[in-house]
Amino acid sequence: MFNRNKYLSVEINSDFGCKSSDSIKILSCAVDSIPSVFTPNGDGDNDFWIIPYLQNYPEASVDVYDRWGNMVFHAERGYNKPWDGKVNGVFLPTENYIYIIKIDKTSIPFVGNVTIIK
Fold it and tell me: Does the 30-116 domain belong in CATH 2.60.120?
């Protein structure tokens, strides 16, 4: 997976010859890259709903609901195990599902649709 994480460095020089520098790591969560479709059919291609960069947010949670409002997937404390399109070990049908992704407790959640196609 391509990693968009960047390091930002700064160096300060005083009029008295003192120098100091530091750097920070800037993490990326490209919201526009949340996949809207995956195909969990066991062919090894797009079998999991992989959300790029979400692993950079250890407090992230992901909830997925069917059209009747039943939760079919839940992950918290990061998205360590991507959704495989199953609920209770059984593959879900081709359908649109609603997701809610919370980066942390204070951020506005990302809400959208993901479609399972077989």
Answer: no
